[in-house]
Amino acid sequence: MASVTPATQNSPGSYRFIDIAVNLTDPMFRGSYHGRKKHEDDFEAMLERSRAAGVKSMMITGGSLEESREALELARKYDLYATVGCHPTRSGQFDEFPDGPAAYLLELEKLILENMTGRGRVAAIGECGLDYDRTHFAPADVQRKHFRTQLGLAKKLHLPLFLHSRAAHADFVQILREEGFGQDGGRSVGAKGGVVHSFTGTPEEAAELMDMGFHIGLNGCSLKTADNLATAKTIRLDKLMFETDAPWCSMTSTHASKQHLSSLPANLSALYLPPATKPESFVNGRPVKGRNEPSAIGGVAWTVSKLHPEATFERVTEAAWRNAMEVFGLEELTHGA
Ligand SMILES: [Zn+2]
């Protein structure tokens, strides 16, 4: 299929998005911040703003066995998708599991197998990978061990990966290569590629991952500094995906992305980045300052499109849409709900 379905001219909200990384299990979306209730539950209003902004679907991140269960529950309820896996900073959970690490992995596998098809299904294995900025949560050797076993699941179950790599590039690609993911996203060993999400590495690191057949997920954290923008510019359109990582990774006025966001047309800005209020002065129907949400994906896409002057905003958003659809097998989204 070579033709691109135009997202109906240029009327606001006509650009479409799949937010491939959103932490909808976070209590902030229920009004609770670090254990303190600050306002009423506005989950539905947040979803409504996302829909108005053209976010047609999302992948809810599962960062542990328990959180993956919650992510799937939300995905089923709202007709979205979920990932199932264990984040590197929580990989100590494997060893702490009552019946040991093999049993934890088996529980992840069972959860995936029970949710492979239909509405609210598992779209990827993850979040898994390495995070050497936060080894105080789980030591590097523990992270490496359980990253490897989750790669095994991706091969066994033929699912794409939802990957996290922070300050660990050399070890991250070494393990991927040793496990057979050195080329074409591991398709020769039964896997199906995937995305390295929230990318903040160098252009060289991005190039290596793209050459290995992986896609790169960009969010507000990937567009924070001038160096980040220089890397984001090098992500090829056929390897690009957009995300928010909400409620984290908001774009702020001090970020390098600001210079590009200032050219976002007012009608789109009203949809993607509507005026927010502080949690203390919460108004239902308005976003909350400091709490990112999926509607902001349009701001991420706009910034990245400005780094690709050869392409229109529509071409960039459609490329990211198509990449997410193809890698995670979400073809039903194009046929309408
Ligand atoms: Zn992550």
Automatic annotation (TrEMBL):
Keyword annotations of the record: Hydrolase, Metal-binding, Nuclease
Residues given in the record as a divalent metal cation 1 binding sites: E127, D245
Superkingdom assignment: Eukaryota
Cited Pfam families: TatD_DNase
Family the UniProt entry places it in: Belongs to the metallo-dependent hydrolases superfamily. TatD-type hydrolase family.
Hydrolase recorded as keyword: yes
InterPro entries xref list: Metal_Hydrolase, TatD-like, TatD-type_Hydrolase
Gene Ontology terms for molecular function: 3'-5'-DNA exonuclease activity; metal ion binding
Keyword Nuclease annotated: yes
Any one cellular-component term (Gene Ontology): cytosol
Sequence positions that bind a divalent metal cation 2: H164, H197
Protein name, per record: Mg-dependent DNase
